[in-house]
Amino acid sequence: MKKKNMFLQLALSATLLVSALSSTAQAAEATSNKDIPVGGSGQVEMVGTIEPTILSVTMPSFVPFNISNSLSTQNKVISPRINVKNNSNVPVQIDVAKTDIDISKLKNTSWSDTGAVNSNQIAIGLKKEETPNEMPETLSNARWLKHNQTDHMNVLILDSNQEGAMYVVGTLGDKVSESATFNVTPTFVVSRTSITE
Q: How far apart are CA 99 and CA 50, in angstroms?
């Protein structure tokens, strides 16, 4: 079985650390009281405090994977489990903001942004783990990495201090060379969310 060595370089350090500000107004203790007569006016000073929330997510910075047409499953990729841990005390969402793709070593091959490939195309995506510690065989619910995408694409939502996992998935046309390598480098963005899964 010929295998193609691929590299998914996660364009982040092993620990993602993002500072965010959440505006939480706190009531200041009243230091004095003042009577305002009927028909009169007065001023009340109100003070709000902005408390910083540290968003911290841990994930690997380098993920090697193999892709081959000889695999009998719909998913033609074998990848390690990508463990992701939300170290924050608030829910976070992990999005892919941009993906750099270098397929220059794959002669006569183009990239597919949708997962549907013709005989000279290749597509790689990310898929949330559905069965614990089991590589997905199908491509359903895969989030396809788009070359030079500008919109954020959500790949995972984690509750506070929750662990999650995803896998690299993909497919390739029957005329794509299986003796070369290519690089896929997604840039991940972590942000606070009110949505939980």
A: 34
pLDDT per position as a tens digit, 44-58: 777 877 666 788 999
Alpha-carbon distance of 83 to 99, in angstroms, equals 20
Tokens representing 104 are 């220059």
Closest to 76 measured CA to CA, from 27, 125, 32, 114: 125
For tokens 């089991």, the residue is 134
Q: Which of these, 86, 79, 91, 59, lies nearest to 133 by C-alpha position?
A: 79
pTM above 0.85, yes or no: no
**How would residue 150 be classed by pLDDT, with cut points 50, 70 and 90?**
confident
Alpha carbon distance 193, 18 (integer Å): 13
Three-state SS for 25? coil
Determine the average pLDDT of the residues in 179-191. Answer: 92
**Mean pLDDT score, 48-77:** 89
Residues 6+ apart with CB under 8 A from 160: 86, 88, 89, 90, 91
Say if CB 94 and CB 57 are below 8 A apart.
yes
Single-letter code of the amino acid located at 137: E
Residue 187 pLDDT exceeds 80: yes
Q: What are the CA-CA distances from residue 160 to residues 56, 88, 149, 163 (Å)?
A: 10, 6, 28, 9
Task: State which amino acid sits at residue 119.
Answer: S
Please, what is the end-to-end C-alpha distance for the chain in angstroms?
A: 39
